[in-house]
What does this fold into?
Amino acid sequence: MSSSKANSQSGLVRTGNRDFMKEINLSIVINLIRSRGPLSRTDIAHSSGLSQGAVSGLTGELLATDFIREIGGGQSKGGRSPVLLIINPLAGFVVGVKLTEQSIVAVLTDMEAAIVHCTTTLATSLRDPQTAIETIIQTVETTIEESDVPRSKVIGVGIGLAGMIDSQESVCCYSPILGWRQVQLAQPIEQRLQLPVYIENDVNALTIAEHWFGEGRGLPHFLVATIGRGIGMGIVANGQIDRGAMGGAGEFGHITMQPGGPQCGCGKAGCLEALAADQAVVRMACEALAAGKQTSMQWAAQDPSQLTFDHVARAASEGDTVALAILNEAGRWLGLGLSYLVNLLNPQLIVLSGEGTRTGDARLEAASQMMKQHIFDQLDKGLELIVKPLDEEAWARGAACVVLSEVFKHPINRDTRAGLLGVV
Ligand SMILES: [Zn+2]
It folds into this structure.
């Protein structure tokens, strides 16, 4: 199948009429202002190749809809200093939702992904899709209401959740945490809220946030790896999120590192997750207690089920050598896994994030060293590893960025529901 046929069948290509050409030019202007602003009209004409007249017309339309704003003068080469243009952060708002088994966290953000309001709804179980859908709708409504932002200013809702997500079809294909298979999540919520709803794998949503508004801004090749209860990954290659053929790319946690090794939650054995994630740390601590090792975690020897990841992390921070060795071991497995990613994908940057980064140096330093030892010659040149701890709000903000990215995308790649806030 030719690519043009594939695109027209998926509804991504509009006919090449004048409106579409204008939409492309507006997108060029908006993205120049977003990525390099504040800019003068002359700067925009120079960088875009558009004529001064065209830039005046396009920026005039964007000003009329309040999408951009004028701010004070820039550098003048004699005469009157030029007026500069910025994106108006209050031009519109989006809601991002992070869905887990027992909670829904929703944030309302402005156009620069700054959080305006946050709401958390706790639930005993969201494994029933209908319950989850109703709870998401209520949480989004509450978030908008409490934020005091007019509902007419809200342009869409993004939902992030763990698992295999078909974001094109808005279907959760498989979520092990929620026990879902083939759940149509977006459509019923969209109908009730009367807003476009996008769903995305939660780590991909975080990656989109880093790509558009974070550490990966302007980088064509970078990875986001998350560590916590599980291990996940998002891939940006050639400036685009790479989801793979079925939305399943990035199952980094389930690379087999040790055939026949410890049991993993996915049903297989020896996965990276079973050797390096938080539960692996707890397992190793229980094994150390069973072996009678001298440690400040001795209190849990009678009932190891009481031992949590936080206990091990705290013991390590207080200098417990057994806890430190365990985190070191988990870190070394993680670093070996990261070296595979570098050798396969040659990223410029890896953002290491997730709740599991809160343990500080013990695990992460070991990971960094192990990664460096196993990288193919030269591939570490210019490679940056940034550790970025995050909380539930940051996951929800990632989901909000999925909607924002649709607004700012080049029109040919943009979902047709995400117009430019009524500009065209
Ligand atoms: Zn696994």
